[in-house]
Amino acid sequence: MTLSADFDPTRAESRQLRVAHRLAHALAHQGLQVVYQPEVDLQTRQLVSLEALCRWHDDELGPVAPDEFIAVAEARGLIVPLGEYMLGQALADLPEVLRRWPQARVAVNVSGVELARPDFAVRTAAAIRSVNPALAAHLELEVTESVFHHNVPVVRQNLLALRELGMTVAIDDFGTGQSSLARLHTLPFDKIKFDRSFVQALEDPMVQAIVKAMVELARNFSRTLVVEGIETPAQLAQLVALGCRVGQGYLLCRPCALDDLPARPHWPTA
Ligand code: C2E
Ligand code: MG
Ligand code: MG
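That is the input. Now the predicted structure with magnesium ion docked in place:
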C-alpha cells in the first residue's frame, strides 16, 4: 500500500478513535440499522436470499460507510457486539421474510475476528435457539477470504458446527484474496459470491473465460454461484449468456429496508 504525501497518522488515529467511540454509543443506544439486498434467480426473477447489511448514520459524524466502521469495529473490539446485533435483527426479521418468501434465507456477514473465537458457534446457536431453532435452516453466514488470516482450524470448527444446525456458508467477494482457489477446499462452504470486480471487467475476454470456468467449477462441486455487483442490463445479459444463474447488484435491487423490498425484483433490459 502506498500512502499519499499528506497522510497524517495522528489524524487517522484520532478519526478511528472517534468512530470507535461513537460506534460504541450507537451499539448501546440502538443507533444501527439493517438493510437487505436480494440475491435473485436471473431466469425466474424469484428472490433467493436476502443479505443483511449494516447501516449507520451518526448524529455527530453523519453517515459512516460500512467499509470504514467495520474495520474500526474489528480493530477496536466492537465487532462481536456488532455481529450479535446483526444476527439478532436477522432473527427478529426472519418470520416476516418467510411469510413473504417461504424458501428464502437471510445472510449475515461475519468477520474473521468473530469466526476465530472458539465460542462463536456455541453463542450463535444459543442466540438462534432462544428465538426458534428452526430458523437455523434459513440463515447463511457470509465469510470473506480474510478468514485465512485468522486461526483457520477454529474457523473451520465453527463453520462445521453451524452447518450441522442447517446454516449455510457463503464465501464472499471471492477472487479478491490471495491463493483463493488453492485454499478454497480447506473451508466448508455451500455458495461462492463472485466479486464485483469481475463484472466491472467483463469486456476482457480473459475475464469472460474466468467467469465461465467458475460457473463450471461451481456446477461440478454442486455449489451455488452468485455474481455480485451487477449494475447494467448489458452486464446482466452477458453474465446470463455465460451461464450465471443467481445475481445481486444495484440493477436488480438496491439494499433497502425490509418493508420496501419488492416481492419480485424487476429490472430494465438492454
Ligand atoms: P459485501 O458483504 O460484499 O456487501 C456488498 C456491498 O456491495 C454492499 O456495500 C452493497 O451495498 C454493495 N453493492 C451491492 N450491489 C452493488 C452494485 O451493483 N455495485 C456496487 N458498486 N456496489 C454494490 P456496503 O453495504 O457498503 O458494505 C460493504 C462491506 O461492509 C460489505 O461487503 C461487508 O463486507 C461489510 N459489511 C456490511 N455490513 C456488515 C455486517 O453487518 N457485518 C460485517 N462483518 N461486515 C459487514
Ligand atoms: Mg456480503
Ligand atoms: Mg460481497
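Residues 172-173, 193, 228 surround magnesium ion (ligand 3) (CB under 6 Å).
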